[in-house]
Design brief:
This protein is 24% helix and 32% strand. It has three helices and eight strands, in the order H-E-H-E-E-E-H-E-E-E-E. The strands form three sheets. A four-stranded antiparallel beta sheet has the order 1-5-4-3, covered by helices on one side. The protein has a two-stranded antiparallel ribbon with strand order 2-6. Strands 7-8 form a two-stranded antiparallel ribbon. The longest helix is centred in the middle third of the chain and has 16 residues. The relative contact order is 0.26.
C-alpha cells in the first residue's frame, strides 16, 4: 500500500517528503540566536514526560501551506504535557509561537492543490524522545538536522 500511495503522489506531481525528513513538530520556534538556543536547550533538559504512541491515520489537505499530511485525532496526554512544557519555554524566551490549537501531523507531500482520493498508509509513531531540530536549506530542499535530543521516561 505504501508503494501504491507513493505512486499516486508522484503521478500528481507533488513534492514527496523523504522518509528521513518525516517528523512531528511539537513547537515551531523559527530562527533563534545562539544565546536563546542555549537557554532552550538548558530548560528542555528539565522536562519530565512519559513516552507515548500516536496513530496517524487521517489524510488531510492544508490549503495555506499547500501540504498533504496525516493527522492523529487521538492525542495522548503525554504529548500535550510535552507541547505545553515546550510552549512555556518558548514564551519565557520571548519567542512568538503560532496562536492556534495544536494538531499533531506528519507532512507527506508539498505543493498540493487539494485533498487527493487515495488510501494513505497509517503511521504508528512511538515517541521515546524529542529533539531540537534545525531546518537547513539544500539544493534538494529543506533537510532537518537534529541539534539535541532528549529521552522521555
Amino acid at each position: 500500500m505504501v508503494g501504491q500511495f507513493s505512486q499516486t503522489l508522484k503521478a500528481r506531481d507533488l513534492k514527496i517528503v523523504k522518509a528521513d525528513n518525516l517528523h512531528v513538530t511539537l513547537v515551531f520556534l523559527g530562527n533563534v540566536d545562539v544565546q536563546t538556543e542555549r537557554v532552550i536547550r538548558k530548560k528542555a533538559s528539565s522536562i519530565c514526560a512519559q513516552s507515548f504512541m500516536l496513530n496517524f491515520n487521517q489524510l488531510a489537505f492544508w490549503h495555506k501551506p499547500r501540504v498533504l499530511c496525516l493527522l492523529s485525532r487521538a492525542v495522548d496526554p503525554q504529548l500535550l504535557v510535552l507541547v505545553d512544557a515546550l510552549t512555556e519555554i518558548a514564551e519565557q524566551c520571548a519567542i512568538k509561537i503560532e496562536d492556534r490549537p495544536y494538531q499533531p501531523h506528519i507532512t507527506l507531500a508539498r505543493k498540493a492543490q487539494a485533498l487527493i482520493n487515495a488510501n494513505a498508509p497509517g503511521i504508528q509513531w512511538y515517541a521515546g524522545s524529542f529533539c531540537l531540530v534545525e531546518s537547513c536549506s539544500t539544493l534538494e530542499g529543506v533537510q532537518y538536522q537534529v541539534v539535541r535530543q532528549w529521552e522521555l521516561e
